[in-house]
Design brief:
With about 300 residues, the protein is an alpha/beta fold. The chain has three domains: about 5-70, Orthogonal Bundle (Arc Repressor Mutant, subunit A), CATH 1.10.10; about 95-160 and about 275-305, D-Maltodextrin-Binding Protein, domain 2, CATH 3.40.190.10; about 170-270, 3-Layer(aba) Sandwich (D-Maltodextrin-Binding Protein, domain 2), CATH 3.40.190.10. Helices cover about 45% and strands about 20% of the residues. It is built from 13 helices and twelve strands. The protein has helices at about 5-20, 25-30, 35-50, 65-90, 105-110, 110-125, 135-145, 190-195, 205, 210-220, 230-240, 255, 290-305, and strands at about 55-60, 60-65, 100-105, 125-135, 150-155, 160-170, 170-175, 200, 225-230, 245-250, 260-265, 275-280. A five-stranded mixed sheet has the order 4-3-5-12-6, with helices on both faces. It is elongated and about 70 Å long. It holds the Pfam family HTH_1. One of its GO terms (molecular function) is DNA-binding transcription factor activity.
């Protein structure tokens, strides 16, 4: 077996995947912290090896050819298998190592995810995590590009090319400061909200959210006090008394318990509950540790407080 050639091939595959992700040899070289000429050389060697052009060189970057896309899909499958092999060998030698890559909605990163990660690391202390957050489009993009192994997102469209492994629902309601007039109500209508300033999600968040329809139909422009790009910002604005906002119960339970916010359900029928999904890539080959973490995460989600008790 030509181990020297295999080592060179691993480097070329790594550079190739980075260049595709960045859409630029220059940006790939910066992220890899090596000279752009070294990246370009490896890509040329890879094209020579396969006997086909793998990139279109464009004025503003590069784009994979159909052959390049095929090679990229192979590389990602190979990297998944490589991680599984390394972990199983490590297990035989007495210590599993590795990284689990997660992309999650910010609401999930506050309580549920830390609890699941903490429990998991009691069993696998040498396995670490890469955790990123963002709006639904960003999260699902990380999944479809296989940059994340596990995605937890709100209101994901069924046509996404992914495997849905678990779902829970959480009702939507109004969050407000505890001394706000709406806090005394048992449920809130859109008419009730019309008297108060609103704090709404920013454009990127809203466009990929189940709230987009109700926001465009029911909230007047003059009502909007703040557009916030992250749930943490939105909750801070509400707690300060600037206005009220719509959010699921899941994600504000800690602030409710601490007396910093109140949550009141919307009148039944105004909007369906949010669906929180756990997704993994199609044809995913999980390492043993990843399967264990997924089981723990699903258990934590199933036990989560998704509405008032």
């Amino acid at each position: 077996m030509h181990f020297g050639w295999m080592a060179h091939l691993r480097i070329a595959y790594r550079y190739f995947a980075q260049a595709v992700r960045d859409g630029s040899i220059r940006r790939a070289s910066e992220n890899l912290n090596i000279a752009s000429s070294a990246v370009n050389r490896q890509l040329l060697l890879l094209e020579e090896e396969f006997g086909a052009p793998l990139f279109l060189r464009l004025p503003r970057g590069i784009k994979p050819t159909p052959e390049g896309s095929l090679v990229l899909e192979y590389i990602r499958r190979w990297q998944d298998q490589d991680r599984v092999l390394e972990e199983e060998i490590a297990a035989l030698r007495g210590g599993v190592r590795g990284t689990i890559r997660i992309a999650a909605a910010e609401s999930i990163t506050e309580t549920i995810l830390p609890q699941a990660m903490s429990e998991f690391r009691e069993q696998y202390p040498k396995v670490d995590f890469t955790l990123i957050s963002g709006d639904n489009f960003f999260l699902t993009s990380e999944l479809t590009s296989k940059e994340a192994e596990v995605v937890i997102a709100f209101d994901v469209q069924d046509r996404l090319r992914a495997s849905f492994v678990h779902e829970i629902t959480s009702p939507l309601g109004i969050i407000c400061s505890p001394n706000h007039p709406l806090a005394a109500k048992k449920e809130v209508s859109l008419a009730d909200c019309s008297f108060y300033p609103m704090i709404i999600p920013g454009d990127a968040w809203l466009q990929n959210s189940g709230l987009s329809g109700i926001m465009s139909d029911a909230i007047r422009d003059e009502q909007i006090a703040v557009r916030a790009e992250r749930p943490g910002m939105l909750k801070a604005m509400v707690a300060s008394g600037i206005g009220v906002a719509m959010l699921t119960y899941l994600g504000v339970e800690r602030e409710i318990d601490e007396g910093r916010l109140s949550w009141v359900p919307l009148v039944s029928g105004i909007i369906r509950p949010a669906v929180i999904s756990v997704l993994v890539p199609k044809d995913w080959t999980p390492a043993t540790s990843s399967r264990v973490f997924l089981d723990i995460l699903i258990r934590e989600l199933s036990a989560a407080r998704v509405g008032p008790t």
